[in-house]
Description:
alpha/beta; TIM Barrel; 8 strands; 41% helix
Amino acid sequence: MRIVDLHCYPGTKEWIACQGPYVKALARYWKRDWVGKSEAAVLKEFSDAGVEACLVALDLETTIKTQPVGNDYVHDMWKRHPQRIIQCWGALEPSKPDILREAQRAVNQLGFLGFHFHPIMQHFSVDDPAVLPLFDLISSLKAAVMIDVGTTGMGAGMPGGHGALIRHAHPASIDKLAATFPKLKIIMAHPGWPWVEETTAVALHKGNVFWEMSGWAPKYFPGNLKTDMRGRLQDKIMFGSDYPSMPYARILKEWQELGYSDAVMEKIFHQNAERILGL
Length: 279
């Protein structure tokens, strides 16, 4: 069965370094060493798992003053390995001055699928009126967006969460964004805890909103969500791993242990991504 992984970070030493003060907190959160690999090792993990990866750029320069693993970085990695990396989500830091020009460049020149936003770590809500021109442009470019919903391991356990607010990733922001830009394809990333029921409601109500389940071990998906994914949400759900957060062997094993039919798993692992995002 084809597996399209919508949410893969580069996993390299440069990517680890761009997380600055969050590295130790993430190691505690994931209960593992949080260190970068060589590019060859990353590609081997994709290949061994049989996934076709969509790389995610990361730019937290404004909030934590680190060098981004930005759009050119993931683009170059994609072009070096086009058989295993099939697309990229660009990073846009809303408070940077040339963000509209960069959005156009990433779509028109780099050929990106769309853009990923990490509202908690980027310190903004996607329904903030100040960022509406950015999303208006992305919609006009016919690019998609992938937006984290629910809490994050970045800053978890640190005093004050290192200044980040988990409320910035509440699904109500997605609901408003989707209503404002009905032609914009919005992918919610992660199960949305602790607002899973509200996230479900947004996915069901908004025809332009979809959902990928990265960042959680499948056996820990909330019970109602497990039921809805094989039922009323089966045409909305897509696969993501949040690589390198958890080993592929564990993630894929636990997905199979959910006991969904092959028809449902085909939708989740690749058919919905093909239909919705053209992958």
